[in-house]
Design brief:
Radius of gyration: 21 Å
Shape: globular
Number of helices: 5
Helix content: 25-40%
Largest sheet: 7 strands, mixed
Number of strands: 7
Structural class: alpha/beta
């Protein structure tokens, strides 16, 4: 019984002894915030793509499938959509690597582009270093997490806005990162800094900030 209890405590220390911290967002909008309640309404297509890359391990960024993208993204998008006041109707399309083998989905995407006033393409990217994660894992294992080890993920989002003639009219970008520190005693800090919540906060802030800038700059004008 004691062995089982000791093993259980060891597992808790190894896997729950961590805390995640979010860095400031680079490129954050600092202009005047204005709403366009009186503007004519437009139809908008949002195209999402979620990429991941382990630098030094993956040769190129890889597209997430529907199960790999961040859980709850639809809720984040719906919440941020309130920043845009003159949208009449909207549609969404999420790109997957498998689209290259599915002409029906490619045709659907083209038809959606053709029937909307604007297309907002939003590309998310998360990256980590294979070498740093490999060495960090060795360090955590050898020291039984007694030595604090940082694991860093870089996050970025790039936005391109096209009009109905498929002309690029505006671009935006944001960058930030999450650092997860692993160390046994961080189990007491973990409930206040869980990785899931920090990741969600990052996506929410990305979307709200970019949509707020689009709204303030009145980019989505009636054509």
């Amino acid at each position: 019984m004691k062995k089982v209890l000791h093993l259980f405590l060891l597992i808790i220390l190894l896997f729950a002894g961590c805390a995640t911290f979010k860095s400031a967002i680079e490129g954050q909008y600092d202009g005047a915030i204005e709403k366009n309640f009186g503007a004519d309404r437009v139809d908008v297509l949002f195209i999402f793509s979620h990429y991941r890359q382990t630098v030094g391990y993956d040769a190129i960024p890889k597209l997430d499938n529907q199960y790999q993208r961040i859980s709850g993204f639809d809720d984040f998008f719906r919440d941020a959509l309130t920043e845009l006041s003159n949208i009449n109707a909207y549609a969404t399309y999420t790109e997957y690597a498998s689209d290259v083998n599915e002409p029906e989905r490619r045709a659907l995407k083209d038809s959606l582009i053709a029937t909307h006033d604007y297309v907002i393409s939003i590309r998310f990217m998360r990256q980590k270093s294979f070498a740093k994660y490999f060495l960090g894992t060795i360090g955590s294992t050898v020291t039984l997490t007694l030595v604090p080890i940082p694991y860093h993920h870089s996050y970025s989002v790039g936005v391109e806005i096209y009009n109905s003639q498929r002309q690029l009219i505006q671009t935006y970008s944001r960058n930030s990162g999450l650092t997860k520190w692993v160390q046994a005693l961080l189990i007491f800090i973990y409930p206040f800094h869980p990785e899931r919540r920090k990741t969600e906060e990052l996506y929410v802030e990305f979307l709200h900030d970019i949509f707020r800038q689009i709204e303030s700059e009145n980019v989505l004008k009636a054509l």
